[in-house]
Amino acid sequence: MDERRQLAQELDDMQQSVKELEIHYEQYFAGIEKREPYNERQAIARRIRHFTNRHIVWTDLKFRYQGITSRFMSYGQYWDRILRLMDEGKYHRHTSRLKTATTAPPASSTKGIDPKIEAIKLQQQLSQARKTCGLSGSGPSAEKVAGFLAAQREKIRARYGDKTVEFTVDSSGEKPRIKVSLKK
Questions:
Q1: Scanning 60, 66, 106, 130, which has its CA 20 to 30 A from the CA of 153?
Q2: Which residues in 132-147 are b (16+ Cβ under 10 Å) and which e?
Q3: Is 161 helix (H, G, I), strand (E, B) or coil?
Q4: DSSP letter at 45?
Q5: What CA–CA distance (Å, rounded) separates 144 from 142?
Q6: Distance CA 22, CA 33 (A)
Q7: Distance from chain centroid for Cα 156
Q8: What local confidence, expressed as pLDDT, does residue 140 receive?
Q9: Measured between alpha carbons, how far is 80 from 141 in angstroms, rounded to an integer?
């Protein structure tokens, strides 16, 4: 029974190594990692070859080993294909998408209005409404308002598509707040 437990632990380690290798390759293909994880791949291939000569008596462990082996071989073919495409210059890492997605300002769902100008205008209206309600302080900064508007636009875009959105200040309650509504 001790041999079975040891074999199961080795298979667990091997399965975890294959998952980690998959993550490393995805990071390499995305441009996050600068070098291909070639040495890790060779180490896992050695471990798998070591198991091929081993006689596994237990059917469940043999099945797990075969699953890990086939998964590793499938990933290997996939990685080799992408590496070949990279060598031929037909595969682009899409790093420009990552950079533009984080640095580009969010697209405005309100047609014709600059998001920064809209945020400043709403921040001023919010400050005026706070004074009207008798609240002290000027309220959130224009940057916080712009961040809130961008987040709301993304939520609305995810839920309703590219619809036109209107932001207004509502001071009907105790505290003034920004109200979001869809234009039809």
A1: 130
A2: eeeeeeebbebeebbe
A3: coil
A4: H
A5: 5
A6: 12
A7: 19
A8: 78
A9: 51
User: CA-to-CA distance for 11 and 66, rounded, in angstroms?
Assistant: 10
Residue 108: per-residue pLDDT: 42
- Does the predicted model carry a pTM greater than 0.70? no
Are the C-beta atoms of 159 and 181 separated by less than 8 Å?
A: no
CB 183 within 8 A of CB 163: yes
| Domain ranges, ordered by start, for the chain | 2-97, 105-182
Nearest-angstrom CA–CA distance, 110 and 90? 38
| Residue spans of the chain under pLDDT 50 | 97-98, 100-110
Place of tokens 């040891």: 6
**Going by DSSP bridges, is the β-strand pair 165-170/177-182 parallel, antiparallel, or unpaired?**
antiparallel
- Tell me the pLDDT tens digit for each residue of 30-43: 888 889 999 999 99
Res 95: pLDDT: 54
Q: Which residue is listed with tokens 């047609």? A: 111
String of DSSP letters for 81-143: HHHHHHHHT-----HHHHHHHHHSPPPPSSTT--HHHHHHHHHHHHHHHHHHHT--S--S-HH
